[in-house]
Amino acid sequence: MPFKASDGGWKLPLIIDANIHLLQGEPAETDYVSTAPDREDDFAHPLSNFVCKRASWPEIIPYLHAINSDFYNMCASLGKIDCFHYYLRDKGTDLGRFISTELEYLFTLLKSHFDLLQKVVARIWSHVELTDKSLEKRNLPERFRNMILTNDRIMSASEIAEKFHIPESLATFYSGLGQFYQMVKKTRDGIIHHGKEPGLVFVLPEGFAVSRDDELFRQFDIWREDGIVNKHLCSIRPLLYHLIDRTMDAFQEYTLVITRAIMFPHDMIPGRTVFTRGFHLKYLFRLHSTINANVWWPAIEWGER
């Protein structure tokens, strides 16, 4: 993993013949170690930071890489939607289908993100030793839905704790995500397995909109009054923000809960943070930094697009 050295230069450690060699190597699309983000859109992914510093067992790393890949793809999807607005909106292209397919893909990525998180959780749990020896330690399932749902009903925190013999705080984490996860899963399963699709996407001068009365979108109570046109058409930017922000909050919440409930090995990189850099993270940064002031697509300079 590249790291920012004290002289400000980038170093890339490589092991050759059992010796560590430091090469020059600036990160492009990868994680790196530094005391501070090198660019404003570099992101301290909570799970990457936790696993790399305190839980980097070999069987976990492939799933962490898969999570990072999904994260990069989410950002790329946001970038495509922005590009459709800024470059193609006035070209007479049928953009509605472009946007609806990106929405379908985003729900698939979100579902995958939670299942990959659960694979990491299950493998971390396998290394945990219970201090209360009277409790039977149970292996955790590898599907997120199996942690929170029974016959499509969201289990309470006490039910989850009793079923899997996990700390109450971790069970509360799962139960608290139940409603959001169930909406994501229901939408994704409807698209993948039952032939459903997002309703019409409307191409407006201000950006892309959907009807809040559509079956898929009416379950999300996140629409803003300043983003509603003709009483029913809503900008999709609040939806994009809500879906990705709530998912990233879940990863942050898990790392906080698990490190408070369980004693892990000491920090292997004290005083430094693992940051994620990617070609398309700027689109996520733009969404986060402008959504409060701009429910529709903000006017930006050509070179910033």
Written account of the structure:
The protein is α+β, with helices and mostly antiparallel strands. The chain has two domains: 1-36, no CATH class; 44-265 and 280-304, no CATH class. It has nine helices and eleven strands. It has helices at 46-54, 61-88, 95-125, 144-148, 157-164, 168-176, 178-193, 237-261, 281-290; strands at residues 3-4, 10-16, 19-23, 30-34, 149-150, 153-154, 202-204, 207-211, 228-229, 233-235, 273-277. The strands form four sheets. A four-stranded antiparallel sheet has the order 7-8-10-9. Strands 1-2-3 form a three-stranded antiparallel sheet, with no helix packed on it. Strands 4-11 form a two-stranded antiparallel ribbon. A hairpin with a 3-residue loop joins strand 9 (228-229) and strand 10 (233-235). The longest helix is centred in the middle third of the chain and has 31 residues, at 95-125. The chain is flat. The model has no long low-confidence stretch (mean pLDDT 90).
Distance between the termini: 30 Å
Supply Rg. 21 Å
Spatial order of the strands in the main sheet?
A: 7-8-10-9
Largest sheet: 4 strands, antiparallel
State the shape: flat
Integer count of domains: 2
- Kindly state the number of beta strands: 11
In round numbers, the mean pLDDT is: 90
Q: Which segments are poorly predicted (pLDDT under 50) over 5 or more consecutive residues?
A: none
Secondary-structure class: alpha+beta
Helix percent reads 40-55%
Q: What kind of assembly state do the chains in view correspond to?
A: single chain
What is the helix/strand order? EEEEHHHHEEHHHEEEEHEH
The number of helical segments is: 9
Report the sheet-strand fraction: 5-15%
